[in-house]
Amino acid sequence: MTLLTWNDGFSVGIDSVDFEHQEMIELINQLYAELSDRTDTEAIEHFLGDIHATISAHFALEERVMKRSGYDEYQEHKEDHEELLDQIRDLMDEFEGNPEEAIGVLKNRLGDWFEGHFASFDARLHGKLRVPHY
To answer: Are 88 and 48 in contact (CB under 8 A)?
Structure first.
C-alpha cells in the first residue's frame, strides 16, 4: 500500500537531498503498509526507529547544506526539523505504552509529516541552495 509517491515537485534541486527524500518516502510507505496490516508490533517499532534515524541523518545533511549556502530561513527550518523529530519520539513512546491507539494516530499523521514539512519548508529551498563541497 502506497501513501506517498515521489514527484518532481518534491525536488529541491540537489541530488543528494532529493535522493534522501525518495528514500524517506519509501520507508514511510513501508511503515504505512505495516500499520495497515497491524500484525507485527515489533516490526512497527523497528520501522519507527529506522524512520527516526533516517530522518535525523537527512535533517543533518539538509541543515549542513542550508548553513553553507547562507540560507536566510535556516533557523526556522531547523526548528521545524526539531519539532518533527520530537513528534516522532513522542509517538515511539506512545507506541510502547499503547500500540493499538498509537497505530491509528501514526497512520493518520505519517503522510502529513512529509508533505506538510515539504510544502511549508523544503519547497522554499528549491534554487536557493548550493551543493556543499566536503
So the answer is: yes
Let me know if residue 4 belongs to a domain.
no
Q: Give the model's confidence band at 32: pLDDT under 50 very low, under 70 low, under 90 confident, else very high.
A: confident
Q: Whole-angstrom Cα distance, residue 85 to residue 8?
A: 25
Alpha-carbon gap, residue 28 to 95, rounded angstroms: 16
For the chain, report the end-to-end CA distance as a whole number of angstroms.
38
Nearest alpha carbon to residue 99 among 50, 37, 15:
37
Tell the residue number behind the cell numbers 497505530, with chain if given: 103
How far apart are alpha carbons 72 and 49 in whole angstroms? 31
| Residue whose C-alpha is closest to residue 103's, from 111, 92, 114 | 92
Report whether 3 contacts 111 (CB < 8 A). Answer: yes
The Cα 127–Cα 58 span in angstroms is: 19
pTM of the model: 0.80
CATH code of the domain covering residue 61: 1.20.120.50
Distance CA 10, CA 104 (A): 26
